[in-house]
Amino acid sequence: MNNKGQMIGRRLLQIAPVIVLATFVVFGLLQLVPGDIAVTLAGENATDARIVQIRQTYGLDQPFLVQYGHWLWNAAHLDLSRSYLSNEPVLDQILHRFPTTLLIVAVALLISLIIGVPLGIVAATRPGSRLDTVVTSFASLGVALPNFWLAMILVATFALTWNIFPATGAVAFGKDPAKALLHAALPAFALAAGGIAEVARQLRSALIEILSSQYVRTLHAKGLSPTAILWKHGLKNVSVTLLTVVGLLINRLLGATVVVEAVFAIPGMGSLIVHAAIHKDFPVVQGVVLAMVVVVICMNLLIDMLYAILDPRVGRT
Amino acid sequence: MNAADPLLTVRGLSVFFRAGLDVVQATSGVSFAIQPGERLGIVGESGCGKTVTGLALLGLLPRASSRVTGSAMFEGQDLISLSPGQLRRVRGRKISMIFQEPMSALDPVFTIGSQIGETIRTHFGVDRGAARRRAIDALASVGIPSPERVHDSYPHQLSGGMRQRAMIAIALVCEPRLLIADEPTTALDVTIQAQIIDLLMDLSARTGTALLFISHDLGVIAETCTRMITMYAGEVVEDAPVDAALVRPRHPYTSGLLRSLPRLSPRGAALPSIAGRVPSLRDMPAGCRFAARCHHALPDCDKAQTLSEVEAGHFVRCWRHDVLELPGALTDLERVA
Q: Residue A161 is part of which domain span?
């Protein structure tokens, strides 16, 4: 079990380089954006002197590496500097908007699992049956559907025609949980279509492989019932695959919120970064990227720790 | 039950597999019997139907793609026609099976102990504590030095030999009447092989469990079993007491197998081998299936061959059995010495 501790320690050590690399790449990309932010900030008819002054105030006259180093140093002290546009601290903006995005991602993940897991199990226990064919084709469709298109269809049907769900906006979960969930439902469903399909497909193929493995044959030879074999041995063995799928899914859902939040006009992280990128509000872009990277890394770490709990072979080589 | 009654009587066991649109026949009309406590070997090269026969007896072949005909009478029941529920009460309780590769035959994410315990609790209504004690006893009885530790270990933490011992403990924990051992030593190195064979023989003698030992290794069968069945291309070609078969095999294929054993063949001579290959399942000859590889083949060998008794308890599927003087592994003189 010491090995597992070592494994987690190793993973923790990998975090810092990943954060530095990811933020460095984004910082570098922002330098390539055409146009001068100082000119924009100075407003119309600004004098050259004013523009130079703005460059100095924001440190834009410094070399790239110095700017990055400065930003990184402050970020390490939880200071993500201020938005060029609103002059609000970036950290406050992120903390304000992250819960909305997290709620949508969490609900989407939950929907993916609640629908995807049973579908995968049903298909795997009857491979080749008509039900299996239906599930497999539905899964291919779900993977192929663009979520922004699905989002628009959902809005048109459930919000505009039937008036069951609100079409736009979000409510903080802390204020009114029921209303918050109602607002999160459509965007979450739009995101979950791909998730359901992914979970069902991966679970099906992993479970089929497990159920035709030699140790399952041994379990049959011991006289265990197919039910006991599926629910005890099948599920524990497949949980490792499921965990991998969930980890990848969380990362993908976080990314996909950018588009879906735009469709639903939700004030989350996705719309924040889109708005900031369009208006060259670099500190906000950097801050959001950093926050996303940290969340993804923490999720991956959590999943690695769960691996160690579920699979006794992890951490031993 | 009368002592002379066989424990298991297999009659005309044939296994068919669906392969695409075709149906291929893996074994045809396999018949044999095992007495209580007897150790019977099935020998033959890969693909001759040994393993399929073992799996068919316990209904372990995939139901969707296979069909089994014939009968296998065991304690008054025909195993082939039992319902899945009735078959489950036989598996692991009355008839157990162990497999070639103990690493892949054990569930990697459960401890050895829980894999023994669930077998006990499936067949007997005992609580976890009692199951644990019985599991530890079972591990001790297969010669595992620290059974408590192994009980709480996962398969990957054990060596190959220990895993196979654990496999045997799982198979024998409910004291079955018959153990089907499918190549149980093939994946192990030679010293461990010998230990596992000794263990199986010892357990069989101690508990009266009959053994159906499936192997391609005639040497192992000769060491372990009292009677042996030679299978070729899905058919039984010879069924004889091991001693009789070693000294005077009646089927050219058995003789060929014996002659090609390094341990049993004459010293100094080049190791004989049987040229050619097993005919394809899709393209079986009508007569003797071995004829194409047989040195003694005559035109008449393309007629259907029947399994006939040549001496008491010695059956052979070759119409020339009384003409041929086939070499065995040992001469009578060597046997005495």
A: 102-281
